[in-house]
Amino acid sequence: MTNYTLEEKNSFTVLGIGTELKSDYTDFVGISKEKGDFWQAVKQDGTLDSLKAIAANDYIFAVNEAVNNKMMHYAGVMTDASLPEADRVIQFPKGEYLVVKGEAKTADELSNTLTGIAFGQALPEAKNVAYVGGPNTTVEMGQRNGLVFGEMWIPVVRK
């Protein structure tokens, strides 16, 4: 049995800077590489620091969203501010979310691990809810004992 919870969340907004993922949605290795390359680029070019500077909290969001039939991936933060380089204001609905918690050595490893557990184990086990689309996110919440910790949030509806 996978360790997950169902939590009620208020609606929230994430300001994101993104990239289109070109790998097939079933190509986990290709998607992971594209996401890793994207995160390395936004860390190196200062984009992530620009986002953090206007954030309402310390959380860093790695958002996945289908937009105009494209698979998009964003680095984002909760904020009411804006940045000229920001691609998208991502609206997360008020409602129930499937939440998987975890920790890993790096933010990339955390995101990959939580995504695998959430979509590979937790959602199939959660018989009373379903993911019907919309943005989902891995939330990097901080560090403790040398590890990055966070959660995966997937909006769900009751079956």
3D architecture notes:
The structure is a single chain. This protein has helices spanning 28-44, 47-53, 107-125, and strands at residues 5-9, 12-21, 60-67, 70-78, 88-92, 95-104, 129-130, 136-144, 147-155, 157-158. It has 159 residues and is of the alpha+beta class. Strand 3 and strand 4 form a beta hairpin. The longest helix has 19 residues, at 107-125.
Which labels suit this protein?
single chain, eight-stranded antiparallel β-sheet, 10 strands, alpha+beta, 3 helices, 159 residues
Specify Rg, calculated over alpha carbons.
15 Å
With strands numbered from the N-terminus, the spatial order across the biggest sheet is: 1-6-9-8-3-4-2-5
> Helical region count?
3
The overall pLDDT, averaged over residues, is: 93
> Quick one: overall form?
globular
Tell me what portion of residues adopts beta-strand conformation: 35-45%
Query: Helices and strands, in N-to-C order?
Result: EEHHEEEEHEEEE
Query: Helix proportion of residues, in percent?
Result: 25-40%
Uncertain residue ranges:
none
Distance between the termini: 20 Å
Class inferred from helices and paired strands: alpha+beta
- Largest sheet descriptor: 8 strands, antiparallel
User: How many beta-strand runs?
Assistant: 10
